[in-house]
Amino acid sequence: MGLLTIIKKQKIKDKEIRVLTLGLDNAGKTTIIKQILGEDTKKVSPTMGFQINTIQYKEYNLNMWDIGGQTTIRNFWSNYFDRSNIIIWVIDSLSLERLDESYQELREKIILQDQLVGTYLVVLINKVDMLDPQQHQSVKDQVIKVLNLDRELNQDRYIIQLVSGYTGEGLSPVLDWMIERDI
Ligand SMILES: Nc1nc2c(ncn2[C@@H]2O[C@H](COP(=O)(O)OP(=O)(O)OP(=O)(O)O)[C@@H](O)[C@H]2O)c(=O)[nH]1
Ligand SMILES: [Mg+2]
């Protein structure tokens, strides 16, 4: 193999981004990934293990790892941390009574993990299609307040976005943000 070919291959490889999608059960992780893939979002069932999908977006290959969020599966999340560039953390805006549980898991299992230092974080507040648009900002404010990410992370390391896995609302700015990171 010539040097040029090696350099070209390296460049293609450099455009791979590994994304781990996590969050509580029923938050909508699988639905969001299906929406990005252009698949039928109405046919989902709880993820019992994991699934990998590659999404091509503007010259980038996003390797999206979709992991189940049920309590018994959460202890296995760390098996997937290696070489992950971005963590997507999905929150269900229709179950804000679980926001504290979501925060605890995000903090203990993600933010405080040494293995994930340097990883970018995307927080998706999902299912906003069911919210009155007038509620959007207050729901976002509530999530910002509970997660209090400024305390743990630099502002350029994370983003919090309102989205809908059903309609796709809010997802393209997130894809753009992910590929614009320094990975
Ligand atoms: N209204 C609405 N419902 C959604 C949306 N996204 C997901 N749901 C519903 O929420 C439920 C859970 O969706 P999943 O995508 O399976 O959730 P998950 O986070 O992958 O769940 P686990 O695999 O168990 O961790 C399903 O009934 C979805 O149809 C959304 O954007 N809007
Ligand atoms: Mg799932």
TrEMBL record:
The keyword Metal-binding applies. Signal peptide: none annotated. Pfam families: Arf. GTP binds at residues 23-30, 69, 126-129. The keyword Nucleotide-binding applies. InterPro entries: ARL2/3, P-loop_NTPase, Small_GTP-bd, Small_GTPase_ARF/SAR. GO terms for molecular function: GTP binding; GTPase activity; metal ion binding. Keywords: GTP-binding, Magnesium, Metal-binding, Nucleotide-binding. Gene3D superfamilies: P-loop containing nucleotide triphosphate hydrolases. One of its GO terms (biological process) is protein folding. Mg(2+) binds at residues 30, 47. Belongs to the small GTPase superfamily. Arf family. NCBIfam families: small_GTP (TIGR00231). This is ARF/SAR superfamily. It comes from Hyphopichia burtonii NRRL Y-1933.
